[in-house]
Amino acid sequence: MDDSRNTHALSARLEKLSEAYLTRLTLEFERLVEIAGQLANEPRCLEALQQLNSALHSLAGSAGTFGFVQLGRQAREQEQQVAKVLEQPSNDKQPLPVSEWIAQLQSALETDKSQKAAMGIETSRVENINGAPCIWLIERDAMLAEYMVQQLHSFGFQVRHFSDAKELDQDKTTTPDVLLIDHRATQQESLKINPVAFWQERLKDLTCPILFTGTEESFTARLHALRSGGSNYFVKPLDMIKLASYVAQLIKTKDTVPERVMVIENDVELAHHLQGVLEAANMQVMVLDHPGMLFEAINDFNPELILMDLWLQDVTGPELAALLGQMERWSQLPVIYLSGESNAELRGQALLKGGDAFLEKPIDSNLLINLCRSRVKRLRNLEHTKNRDGLTGLLKHASIKEALQDQWQLTQRKAQTFCVVMLDIDHFKKVNDTHGHAVGDLVIAAVGTLLRQRFRSTDKLGRYGGEEFALVMIDCTSDNALRMVNSLREDFAAIQFTGGGKQFACTLSAGVVDNQHFPDDTAEALLNRADRALYQAKNSGRNRVCLAAN
Ligand SMILES: Nc1nc2c(ncn2[C@@H]2O[C@H](COP(=O)(O)OP(=O)(O)OP(=O)(O)O)[C@@H](O)[C@H]2O)c(=O)[nH]1
C-alpha cells in the first residue's frame, strides 16, 4: 500500500476509534445517571457507592489515555472522594452530590472535545516493520489497546494484542521482546482470588522483560506487579511517551552489539585459536599479522580491546601499547598482554609502559571470554557517560562530528555509501512558550527514543544542539535515507504529547545528503549541505524532508 493510502487508512481508523470512545462515554454517562438516581433514593447504599467508584475508576483510567485529559482528572478526583466515603462507617456517610459531579464531568468532556477539534491530529503510516522489536500487549479494553498499539507503532514497535490472559496460553511457540500486561487482564476467578499466583503460574516460562499496567497507584499494586514477575509497573492513564522510551531502553540493553577484539600474537596458530574461541562467544575478532600496520588496522576495525603478545617480531607488546597511549583517540583502549612471562619485574615494567592486565599462557577459554566481556563493558559504560547526551541518549555534538569524520575517513580508503541527515523540530520555540521548558524537554527526548528505536545500531545518531539532530547513516543510499527519515517524520507527527492538560502533536523537518553525489566534499562540507537542505525544507513549509541538490 502506498504512503497516502496508508495514511488515509490510519486516519479513518483513528477517527473511528475516537467516535467509538465517544459512544462508550455516552454509555458510561448513562450508567452514572442511573447510579445517581439510585443514590438520590438511598444515599448510603453500599452497592451503589461501589458501582459509582468502579464507574469513575474506569473513566479515570481510560479518558486521559485517549486525550480526554480534563475528564480523566475530574473522574480521578471524584473517585478519590467516593473511596473516602466508602471507608467511613455506614452512619457517618454523607450524601454525595453525584448529579453535580456528572455536570462537572460533562463540562470537562466539552473542554476536551473543543481542544481536540482545534488540534487537528496528524497520523502516521501503520505497517509491519520487518525485524522491529515485538511487544505483546495483554489488555482487556479493546479501545485502549488499539490506541496503545498505534502509539507504540509510531515508535517503531510491532505490537500483538491479546484481549485476555487466556489467549496467551494458546501460543507457546514464540516469545516477544517485551510483554506488557494489564494486571487485571482476565475475567478468570483465579486472578481475582490471588493475582500474584495467577501471573506467576502464567509467566513462569517466559524469559523476556515483563511490564504491568494498572489503574491503582499504590504500594500494594506495585508490590503485586513485582511479585507477579514484572520488572516495572505503569499507572493508567498511561503516559505513552514515557512507556515507549522505557521499552526502547529495555530492548537496546538486551540487544548487545558484539564486542570487537583485536589479536596481535606472534604464534599464528594460537592467534587463530583465540579467534575461534571469541567468535564462538559472538565477538568480532581481527587478527593483526603485521604489527607495523597497527594504526591503519585500528582505524578500520575500531577495536574495543586488544589482546597482545609480549614479544612480537621487530617490536614488543609494551612498545605498541605505549604508542597507542600517545594517541588521544586510543589512549583509553584496554590492552591485555598474553604471556608466559613469570618475571614479576618484567611484567611490572610492561604495565608501566601501557597495558592493563596479563593473561597467563596457556590461556583458559572461559577466563578469556569473561575478561574480554567485562573490559569491553567497562569501556562502553565509560564512553556512554562521556559521549552521550543525558536527555536523549544520543551522541553529543562533538562525538557525532567525530563519528562523521571517522566515517568520511573510512570511505577515503574503502568505498562505502553513507548519508548525513540534519533534522530539526518545527516551531519548537512555540512548544516551550505554550507548554513550558519541561514539556519541551519531553518532546526532544521523544525524538531521541524514536531515533534510537528506528535506526540501525551501526548508524551514528547525535543531538547536534538544542532541538537539532545530526545522523550519519552507514551503508545507506539517498533513496533509503529519504524513505527512513520520511517514515520517522510521519511517526513523530503521530505522537501525542500532553502539556498543561492539553494534547498536542509536533512535526519535524530534515535535510539529507549522500557522499556518493559529492565525492570531493569534506565531512564538514557534507554537513553544511545537509544543513542547507534542512533550511530548504523549513522554507518550503516545514514537516518535510529535502535532498541536497548537485
Ligand atoms: N525545552 C528545551 N528547549 C530548548 C533546548 N535547547 C534549545 N531550546 C529552545 O529551542 C528553541 C529553538 O527555537 P528556534 O531556533 O527559533 O526555532 P523553532 O521555533 O523550532 O522554529 P523553526 O526551526 O524555524 O521551525 C529556542 O526557544 C530554544 O530556547 C532544550 O534543551 N530544551
From TrEMBL:
Residues 134-251, 260-376 form the Response regulatory domain. The keyword Phosphoprotein applies. Pfam families: GGDEF, Hpt, Response_reg. CDD domains: GGDEF, REC. It catalyses: 2 GTP = 3',3'-c-di-GMP + 2 diphosphate. Keywords: Nucleotidyltransferase, Phosphoprotein, Transferase, Two-component regulatory system. InterPro entries: CheY-like_superfamily, Diguanylate_Cyclase, GGDEF_dom, HPT_dom_sf, Nucleotide_cyclase, Rev_trsase/Diguanyl_cyclase, Sig_transdc_His_kin_Hpt_dom, Sig_transdc_resp-reg_receiver. The modification 4-aspartylphosphate is found at D182, D309. SUPFAM superfamilies: CheY-like, Histidine-containing phosphotransfer domain, HPT domain, Nucleotide cyclase. Its EC number is 2.7.7.65. One of its GO terms (molecular function) is diguanylate cyclase activity. Residues 416-550 form the GGDEF domain. PANTHER family: DIGUANYLATE CYCLASE DGCM-RELATED (PTHR45138:SF9), REGULATORY COMPONENTS OF SENSORY TRANSDUCTION SYSTEM (PTHR45138). This is diguanylate cyclase. It comes from Vreelandella neptunia.
